[in-house]
## 1
Amino acid sequence: MKRLLLLVAALGAALLLPTLAAAKGPDRASISGPGLSHPVTIEGDGEGGPSALGILAGEGGFFAQMYGATGPGTLKARPNLKLGPRYQVTYRVPGQDGASTVQQDLYPYAVHGPVSYMSRGQTFWGTQTTAGGWFRGTPSLKQMLVQAGLPATAPPQRAARVFKLGVALGAGAGLAVAAGALALLYRRRHTSH
């Protein structure tokens, strides 16, 4: 009986350890959004703990949203409150076969403290997908974000609109250049025959 219990325990550990070992944190995060002239990049150990990236990952919902962990901060649905401006966080997550990136929406100025959202089904490490969901951050998360370079208070709505307008104008300019290149290519093909 003792041997059977030891065998079951060893088998359980063998099955569980690769899953736990795979639950890695990010080694870099890049934050962009209103009120920032350039992205804020945070590098280091994202396994949790006192580093800036550890606070962002641990208190910003990264592990719950990536791997489906539950606990304090995990929300079942979008909170019914004013979230404020949205920032985009791009995490780089190292893996055995290279690094993957995943996106998270961050609302550092939400009423009652920061909130984050990660969409379900983002692919990482080739075959894994994010669990996704909403997460309520902590006051120390907002404090760290301000120390890293985010504004101390939510930027005026005008700054948020200017950021969105800049993205839209950039996309529109890209489409115009592509359309012009296609028209030129079309014209060259038809005039050379």
## 2
Amino acid sequence: MALLARLACGQDPSMKRHAIPTRLEEEFHQAIELEGREREVFLERLENQDPALATALRRLIALDERELEELDRPLLEQLSFQERTQPPSPLPLRVGPYRIEGLLGKGGMGMIYEASQENPHRTIALKLLRRDLLDPEAERRFHREAEILARLPHEGIAHIYQAGHGLVQWPGGETSEQPYLAMELIRGLPLVEYCRRNRLGLEERIRLLIRICSAVEQAHRKGIVHRDLKPQNILVNQEGVPKVLDFGVARLLEAERNQSFQTHTGQILGTLSYMSPEQVRGDSRSIGPPSDVYALGVIGFQCLAGVFPLDVHGCSIAQAARIIQEEQPTRLGEHDSSLRGDLETIFETALEKDPQRRYPSAGEMGADLQRFLQNEPIHARPPSRLYRIQKFTRRHRGLVYGTLTTFLVLILGVIGTTTFALRSRKSEAEAKSALARARREADKTEQIRRFLAGMLTASDPNLRRGKPLTVVELVDAAAREMDRNPPKDPLVEASLRGTLGETYRNLSQYPRSARQLKKALSLYESHLDPGDPRTAELRLKYARVLVETQKLEDAEKQLRLCAAAYHSLGDRGKEGLTQVLLFRSQLLTERRRFEEAAQLAKNALDLARKIPGQPLLLADCL
């Protein structure tokens, strides 16, 4: 989000560069939660308050809603050139001692040409810094690439022959002085395409991955992180040797404190589908060899399973960033059962969200792949059950803590009742009665404990083979557990179903909410006294959900029953009756029955004025 905020802010020179980004990010998070007319009203209100901020926010939303096809290029390239509409440069004739033969492609910082050298005679790849990017920062990055490649003598990395500034001769006699990089020309196919075209088997694909890990490990030993590993940057030549290309966005670890070698804080470089969570966050301090390991995990997963471990196709930037940072990748075995076991564990380790839980370097990952081929024990271990539960708790902190709090309150109630029983000495009958109550409360607590245990087992990520679990899925698991193993006490079941119904309602899952509340209401009607206020409270909740599902006649019927129940309670039911009258008034207003609605509203107001200590309820009626 920080990257998007800077982009939107940077495109509008009228904006206050230091005051707006934080607020812009806050407004952005609010806006993307709204849809349709609600979002437009939000933007119009902001436009009246701060036109410049609203303009930037609209740009930011438009950028966020672009599909990820726009992100197939490295982000650096996309963001650097998205506003440029200049026609492509003509093909140069010569660059220094090299004769240009044709265009090979475009990199993040320059054009790449096929060129020939006379002495020694050979064909090379020549990268020429783009003229429209000829500024000090681009030149520093370009020369850094030359330095990196010169320090990486490895058969799996494109060799560098020469780097420097040279005279560029253009058609028409024009000349310019530009930096260039002459390197080994690799004729081959991108990794995934090579595997597919040659129909490589599992062992052959793993051996390719091991060689790639070896090349990247060479960089890691030199303190270099690639940060843009992807199949398009790994070409496999005619001899079957993979070559890692384009260290243009690599960071020299030992130069981290040298300001001239730093990218701007939080700037995201790389290609989104292969980026680690820390790269997506723009957390430059956390980027290191494990970031490349994550990319290798995605690449290897794609080579072996034919799909990405996380599907961000068609997502907006914000959605994709959230998925990469929060959701657990699928496991290899889900796509091919033959890939389960150690191989699955290797890639699960490489794709860990926490960099400290991944392989520390590409070499360690390659070594485990080699052990797998040799049928030796691998060093990686699958996440423990405790770790999975901890991750589950962090993803659903509010729901889990709320459940545990409720459970704790129930236990404290049991303790209190039991204490009372032990201390009571007035009579043997009274003590026995208190002890019986304590046992009933303990039995209720045990029923709730079993239900919670069954629910968490049903939603255990280990049993789901690593798939991410949404809050709705968690509540669905609880509902299924309730149907399979309902508590013995019908009132406990009714209370739990009422909680499920309310949770579904908060998640806008109205049909599911209505189903749970209806079952809970039926249990209350069967096992509580007719005048018990719990039935009326639940009936009002049920009526609200029926309105959301457009079952208005059924809702009115429930509201009339609810009003009668509260009326029978006398003073104890005044607050509930006021809420019922007010809600019926709102409902009749929506149905354009204005006279009836007005009368009910007046009745609600008259009643609210008679209830002491309820200013908020009175305010609702005004």
## 3
Amino acid sequence: MNQQNRLSKLASDKPVSTRIIDEILRLFNNDGDFYVSFGRNLTLNTQRSFLIISAYFFFHSGLFESVINFFYSLTVTMISRRSIERAGVRYLRRGVDVDGNVANFVETEVILTVFGSSKVNLHIRGSVPIFWKQRGFRYRPPLIIDKPMSSSFPAFEKHMDGLVNLYGSPLVAVCLLDQTGRELGLGLSYLQHVLEKDSSKYGYYAFDFHSQCRALRFQKVENLVNALHDQLKTISFCWVDKTNHMACEQSGVVRTNCVDCLDRTNVVQGSISQAVCLLQLRKLGLIGPLSQLPENFVRMLQSMWADNGDAVSRQYAGTNALKGDVTRCGQRGLVGIVRDGYNSASRYYYSHMKDSHRQMTIDALLGRSTEPSTDESVDLVEEGEKEEDESENIGRLVNETARFLLSENEILLAFFEVLLTITFHLHYLKSIQFDELKSIELGPLEGSKKVHLYKCLQNFGFVLLFRIITSTPQYYTLRAPKTRLFNNTAIPMKSEEEANEYVQAIAEQIKTTVNLTGGNVYLTTLRVLGNCPLKRRSLLFFCICIIIIILKTL
């Protein structure tokens, strides 16, 4: 009946009887004597098709008259506004101040103008609203929470209550921080503040962007958008009709953050914006309830969000946004990865060479003191910071390598250094299958007192390189590293005894894992381990170097 009503309205402004509508449908559907072609106009002969458009043989042209005459223009406008409160550059402006103002607070407005009316949706971003900072000369300084919850909660409450007063409720906080590693503590503190507030006006969604989208699966962001669907419908959008009357108001807002509120935030806000635009166009009847946004509209919106993200990033970090190809095209490319590497290096340069001057300029523009406060001054390099940097980089590289290599159905049991990652199925040391392991020998190498680990295999496979199939055993030697991993954190070795114990723990972990999978491998402790032949050892060393380079590049 709904289809018939639409057909009646499409054909004429006057009511048409149900019987006539049924006959029209039967006329087109029953006999199979009407044809449609998407390649050419069947109502014209070949010669006339080059000269004229005619309705002489177009039986149902009357049904399409209102459609043919229905043209409209759609204008999309995006405006971002940066708060003057706690304004500045990223390493010198983090977190919240005592008045509840957060760093890098940006309000983005997306306006759809059609039929003389405007549909408006607001998005906001801002730093995690607690007291935290990043200092030092490291490439990625540690995230330091510098005040206890009792001191930071009043500022957190001022910030969140201020947003509710300004935008209405629900206030939906979307946190994109990693739920492991260096960002875990900051994310947990944020969650604890939300739970302490315990307000029905707030919503909180934690989405580990790097974990969910690992191995370039950025389509997983749709899972977050789907989870927000009901909240987005509740928040709605502002609708100003052509008489300049507000027919509908947006009540509430989505607040998105990562660490910098730049790269991951850009990707997620762009996806949320697409979902809201789809709701708006369906409300107008321009898109059917089961239809999706036109591809050209999606590309246009993605491009606008990418340009917007670049502008926000240049102001806060000095370079264009990272992951810009994901925001602009919805997928990762080699050019985008290389560009991100360049921008990351540029950000490091800006943070140590130009950001202090940029911060003073911003403060002068806003009429504030240009003297750096004690907590904003750049920390001096402490004794041993270089060693800590190296350990932190090793731990981060191990985590990133495991995250990139492991599929969703694999369980991570343990990992050691960069090249040794253990799961139930294999350890990613040139992807050696556990059923290929024949024995593990533990002991000091010839001419050395340090304990090393020997693994004897028959069929030795190399990830991304080649596979050696031979009846003679192949050997690989694992030497004691300079660091060990404890709770996913790299810690420098302090003594030879500690290094020997760590190597023994690796051997026992491999043996235990093989046994869990139903295999059997022998662990033998020898007084002295013999060296493998020089020719074979050189070959393995060359392949190991290639693997390290590939992993670091990825």
## 4
Amino acid sequence: MKMGIRKPSVKKSLKARTTGKAKRAVKKAVVPGYGKKGTGWVKDPKKAAYNKLYSKTTVGVNPLPGSSKSNSFSNSSASYSDSAIATHYVPILVNKFVFAFLAIFLGVFGAQWVYAKQYRRALLYFLFCWTIIPIFMSIYQGFRALIARTDNSYKIYV
């Protein structure tokens, strides 16, 4: 059994990336068990055990950058778990003078983030208030808020 780093094959990697969706769809329709997980254990258990052990004991080096994953999922549970993990940042409008005042004078404790309703950041600032890091970050955020361009309502996105 091989252990260590796998030797990458550019030729095989390119062939695997250029196999079309139509060809896979035809094979899936014609060959029973094509594209299904776990069919290797039924057809050839010795080879499946070898491949499982080989993939666990060796490290792969991808010769081609990028990923060839398709955007569509075959089952709904996989798409649900991906959507549950992904987070989307929504900027919040706040008054620039209030945010800057809180950031400069009480920013060590994360007061500006409580005002902006970003409680995770506020908690991080509060937990690390004994270090010097939140001091510099809050002063920077306060002055950045003061010099940010706004309209007549003096609101900025944070």
